[in-house]
Protein: LacI family transcriptional regulator
Amino acid sequence: MRPTVHDIAAEAGVSLATVDRVLNNRPGVRSVTRDKVERAIATLGYVRDVAAANLAKGRSYPLIFILPGGENAFMRGLEAEVRAAMARSPAERTEIALLCVPAFDARALADALAEAHRRRPAGVAVVAVDAPEVTQAVKRLRDDGIVVVTLVSDLPGSARDHFAGVDNIAAGRTAGNLMGRFLRGRKGPVAVVAGSMLVRDHRERLEGFQAVIRDCFRARQILPVVEGQDDAALVEKLVAALLERHPDLAGIYSLGAGNRGLVAALQQAGRAEAVCAIAHELTPHSRAALLSGTIDVLLNQDAGHEIRSAIRVLKAKADGLPVIEAQERIRIDIFLKDNLPNGQA
Amino acid sequence: MRPTVHDIAAEAGVSLATVDRVLNNRPGVRSVTRDKVERAIATLGYVRDVAAANLAKGRSYPLIFILPGGENAFMRGLEAEVRAAMARSPAERTEIALLCVPAFDARALADALAEAHRRRPAGVAVVAVDAPEVTQAVKRLRDDGIVVVTLVSDLPGSARDHFAGVDNIAAGRTAGNLMGRFLRGRKGPVAVVAGSMLVRDHRERLEGFQAVIRDCFRARQILPVVEGQDDAALVEKLVAALLERHPDLAGIYSLGAGNRGLVAALQQAGRAEAVCAIAHELTPHSRAALLSGTIDVLLNQDAGHEIRSAIRVLKAKADGLPVIEAQERIRIDIFLKDNLPNGQA
DNA sequence: GAAGTTTTGATGTACGTAAATCAAAAATTT
DNA sequence: AAATTTTTGATTTACGTACATCAAAACTTC
Structure:
């Protein structure tokens, strides 16, 4: 049987109350006594029963999620996962609130963070926009002991406790590597369509993609990046223009959202087969495009995993517990039409 | 506040004892009364506090993991993850035992399952060998209410409760798709090296690979599969022979273990660059080979995720609880040298 | 060594559920 | 309607921890 506080009290030759004082570092214990107890804990290998402790404490975890609004299918998928987590709340002792803010708007995001601060939750998860006012708002949360996890797009150099998202430089590199190999022997430049250079994840994907093409596929020209604001209509216009201007375009890397526009433009121009398209995020539309061959590869981050991971980390950090790093690493899914999962999205 | 059994008793106008009888379907409740209670549960949205219930029950989960022995690096990785789970046991209320059996030996595996049966655990996780005596042994476990999860290699048509592993047909198809695209414009046949056709996962990978090459890359010849028994020395001999016999060999798909042999043979023959190699499982050796360019793509299943998933499912099924399917889907990692995770393996 | 302060012990209640016991009430059978 | 069986209620203990209270003991300090 695993040892309990009673066993420790016996082993250390002190009372239960003293063990309790040590465990919850309450005042009024001489350091000699504290040592005795800590030695007993070590020799017996005592681990606090978190479930029992939470039960006794009646602990719950008020959490706030802040996501960009708009029609971005991936973000709406994230939102759906947050709502699924809300439904599980009673079983997980969480109380989750959801805030939506305009996309790519640092000011609005900072305001939302301030609002979150006012509500004094145990933790906040936020899809970050990389801007000083956001960094500062995060710092203020941390200063009040509120755990902050960035989601999807990170805010390095800020005080955030954890990033729940993929390595976007690696994602960009992966896209570059696959694009380079798939186009072996074919001529023509490749284009990059981003959402906005204001968010870190897009900047990092671009950086990784460019680095690999530059270093490993030197002959391949990369056209200047175009920004589609994650908006399908705008993306369609931009891609159509690209296709017209570059009849020899060999590939397109779409590293943001709005892929409906990408697909529409490619099909409109009758270049769906000819142009190698690599895009991000599995949505109903992108899935269909992958299956039809318009999109060749989809890089994806599993929204469900990200949300569940964020919640696990928020709860653990709120309790000052360690997290299993390997378990919380969000992986880059690479989907070809052959390894698409059946379910959702 | 979330409702408790007391609230249900009040709402239903019955006593606590009756609520308890309904909740834990103990006998001695008229169906009218049972209905009243169930309606109260529904209207209040009561969810059992699993933590409190487990605490009260003093529940623990004795589990047995059965893995193949030998030097297979992936299996040793699995074992390491099982040991890591053992270390977490006190916090997770599990009591995990580990049994190792000779690889590809159905008789030995059936015996191990019988031994596991004798120990009467709550659940068993097993890397299956596809044979009738194994299927029967699994059935006997199930008949005694012991949960069975297959790990890595499945046993469909058996009574197992769940499979914790990747879709191996999809994995094979993915390898085929990538191989076909990477070799575009290059001539020459491709070879397949398996471990043994006795295990389902290898058969399925082969099937998927062949199907894609046959359907999408018709011109590409596939050489007859060779079986390396997941043994590096044997694999090296076989691959060396293949390379000698086929100077124009364009690619090799290694769908089993023993990749040290594959890499050695390729490098020995000076064909590391020329031949496109796709292999399975991230190990220190295969990682090095990927980084050096000898291996072009690694398909991987995360051993840590598989073990943790198996444990979650075993516990849930042992309690008759539902599992979050999407969370338990083990994904096929596709690693290029650009998206290798830093950590372990 | 008396007064004061700090440290420790003893004890009880609470969290939400499980499980058991015994008595009381209701339904069923005779 | 009495006897029997089934169903229900009331109450208690337990799980492992948190937290509070009050008294007793051990240290300081003068």
